Amino acid sequence: MKTANSMVIPVVGILLALISCGGGGDEHPKSASDKRNPSDAYEPREKGLYAVFHTNKGEFTVRFFEDLAPKTVENFVGLAAGTKKWLDPASKDWVKRPFYNGLIFHRVIKDFMIQGGDPLGNGTGGPGYKFEDECFTQGPELTGAIKDRQTAVQVWNTIIVPYAQKYNGDVPDPDIKKIIETAVKKQSVDELIGKTVEYVKTRTGTTQAVYGLKLVHAVDYGCLCMANSGPNTNGSQFFIVTKQDGCPWLNGKHTVFGKVVHGMEVVHSIENLPTGAGDKPLADVVIDKIEIQREK
Length: 296
Prior knowledge:
Layout: H1 4-21, E1 48-55, E2 58-64, H2 70-81, E3 86-87, E4 94-95, E5 105-109, E6 113-116, E7 136-141, H3 149-166, H4 174-186, H5 197-204, E8 211-215, E9 223-226, E10 238-241, E11 256-262, H6 264-271, E12 287-295
Antiparallel strand pairs: 1-2, 1-12, 2-11, 3-4, 5-6, 6-10, 7-8, 9-10, 9-11
């Protein structure tokens, strides 16, 4: 027979994944300018940090969101400029040189996105390390009824998981024990929906505040986003959204850390190239170099 502790572990893992990559787009409604050509959005250039992508199909410029995703911007800029160490898949050595020079856009899908940043060119490569998402910031404190799954996940991870860990899974409160057992059995936190945050805090004897999550930026048209293989698996791969209405189903799953401000027509020309297996362009689209520029 499984102990309560052995049952808590798998559901904790699953629900931590939900908290990292879940979330809808209502926290970040589209502005009136979202459907404009991004090339018109920042002319003349605003103060900030930019990347000019020089490719064999032309040039385009991205303005970074330094304030929204500082770790992600630092990682990309360090790789592009050659100031950050990465693992060379050929030599197996850690090196410091411009990472993106000579890499290709290995996956392009019309009316969706173009993707690059893989040293292997097949969607499986990276810089030899992974780092966390920057999709959410702390929202307001949650109180009252638990009305949705996202709130339930927050309550689960903030209150119930530490409570279960404190007692090594053998929790003394029968109501919370039943909630844990049901959650593990169903692999869902829906058992919390309909209860109140105060109820859970009282039963567990905690005064810990529970905060909601606020989406940092939606996956909108023209945005530069991190590609990943799940929560907190960022490395070097990125994609640029070409869908005019954006990709709200990806909100909270991919860190948004910049936006194309010039040359979106070049991005669209890449998007529309003929492709073969794995949505790979039949003719290589090469990043000759990425030039980092600071506008003061």
